[in-house]
């Protein structure tokens, strides 16, 4: 403090608290609790009455030094956006970053409509329910849990626990009943949950050698596909968790998966820039598409399912005629990464991430 009477110290994970000390006697005066990750900076006001703190959680707090009460906060200091999801109707964007905060945005206006506090160091994956009323968030330290939020009220309505490291990717079955979640950095397991009942997984698939990078349910709910960082593809009986086929699908990580709504075949995209087709019954390789030499980040089908959209790490979007197996349109020259896609009729909303905290939304009419 300016008069030298009080020393403020900020802890790092898992402490995350601010201690105020009598600088002369060493006595602990009080503890200020609020940050959800390590405290990175502290400053007293000139009169010594207010302490300002900033943390890895991207929160800025103003504290009353005498009472320890929180006077004000600001949550707009976001650095990196790690996850994003669009509601099925394309109207709401959810973003999650280092803050442990989930921000909700109106896509049409770009206005922020709400903030959900997951009390985690990072939001690592997001997915909306089929009707858009529930947002599901995968988290990092300290709990590595999965949280279910009511979008309308902003209240947390459910919690799944079991992962031992952060939840890297999630997927919902087409009927919204089952959630698959994939772990990373030593967890490397896929857990499947009943969204409507219980907080224990129905089954766990633990034989992935590396982090789970991608997940997808087939439209009829029969199959769950998983892709890992080694390039191994698994086709799983979604009801039982029994692996039907294990395929060395790519030479590197499988970063995107989607089922063809017309044929039922599985498509996998890798960090090699290739999109490969697989027969779900036999596991047989059927062919491939070769895009730019870039990581495939997103796969989706537009309109009636006759056009495949591929989004790449370098921001390119390619549109493929599935009858001709040729690209019919390309968007290139955008440097941001394609984070997620939403489809509504002939309109596509593409969310692009610049890696520095800025999200850009593109509306594409086809």
What do you see in this structure?
The protein is an all-beta fold and 366 residues long. The protein contains no helices and 34 strands. It has strands at 6-10, 18-22, 28-32, 39-44, 50-55, 60-64, 70-74, 81-86, 92-97, 101-106, 112-117, 123-128, 134-139, 146-150, 156-160, 167-172, 178-183, 190-194, 203-205, 212-217, 223-228, 232-237, 243-248, 254-259, 266-270, 274-278, 285-290, 296-302, 307-312, 317-321, 326-331, 337-344, 347-353, 359-365. The protein has a 4-stranded antiparallel beta sheet with strand order 4-5-6-7, with no helix packed on it. A 4-stranded antiparallel beta sheet has the order 8-9-10-11, with no helix packed on it. The mean pLDDT is 91.
Helix count? 0
Strands, total number: 34
**SS-based structural class?**
mainly beta
CA radius of gyration is 23 Å
* Unreliable sequence segments: none
Side by side, the strands of the main sheet go 4-5-6-7
Q: What form results from the Cα inertia axes?
A: elongated
Range of helix content: under 10%
Strand content: over 45%
- Roughly what is the average pLDDT, rounded to an integer? 91
Q: How far do the termini sit from each other?
A: 61 Å
Largest sheet: 4 strands, antiparallel
Task: Please state the oligomeric state of the protein chains shown.
Answer: single chain
């Amino acid at each position: 403090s300016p008069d030298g009477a009080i020393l403020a110290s900020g802890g790092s994970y898992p402490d995350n608290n601010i201690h105020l000390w009598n600088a002369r006697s060493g006595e602990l005066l009080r503890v200020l609790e609020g940050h959800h990750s390590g405290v990175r900076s502290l400053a007293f006001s000139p009169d010594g009455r207010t302490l300002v703190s900033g943390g890895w959680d991207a929160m800025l707090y103003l504290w009353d030094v005498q009472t320890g009460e929180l006077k004000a906060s600001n949550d707009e200091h976001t650095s990196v956006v790690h996850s994003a999801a669009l509601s099925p109707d394309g109207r709401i964007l959810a973003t999650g970053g280092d803050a442990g905060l989930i921000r909700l945005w109106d896509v049409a206006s770009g206005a922020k409509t709400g903030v959900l506090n997951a009390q985690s160091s990072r939001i690592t994956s997001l997915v909306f329910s089929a009707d858009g009323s529930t947002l599901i968030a995968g988290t990092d330290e300290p709990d590595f849990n999965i949280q279910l939020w009511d979008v309308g009220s902003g209240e947390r309505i459910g919690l799944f626990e079991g992962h031992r490291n952060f939840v890297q990717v999630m997927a919902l079955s087409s009927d919204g009943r089952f959630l698959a979640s994939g772990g990373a950095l030593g967890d490397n397991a896929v857990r499947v949950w009943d969204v409507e009942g219980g907080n224990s997984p129905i089954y766990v698939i633990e034989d992935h050698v590396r982090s789970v990078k991608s997940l997808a349910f087939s439209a009829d709910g029969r199959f769950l596909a998983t892709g890992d960082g080694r390039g191994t593809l698994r086709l799983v009986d979604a009801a039982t968790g029994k692996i039907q086929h294990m395929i060395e699908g790519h030479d590197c990580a499988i970063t995107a998966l989607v089922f063809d709504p017309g044929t039922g075949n599985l498509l996998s995209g890798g960090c090699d820039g290739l999109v490969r087709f697989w027969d779900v019954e036999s596991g047989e390789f059927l062919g491939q598409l070769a895009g730019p030499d870039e990581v495939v980040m997103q796969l989706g089908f537009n309109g009636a399912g006759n056009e495949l959209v591929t989004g790449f790490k370098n921001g390119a979007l390619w549109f493929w005629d599935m009858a001709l197996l040729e690209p019919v349109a390309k968007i290139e020259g955008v440097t941001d990464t394609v984070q997620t896609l939403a489809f509504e009729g002939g309109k596509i909303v593409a969310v692009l991430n610049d890696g520095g905290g800025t999200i850009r939304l593109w509306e594409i009419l086809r």
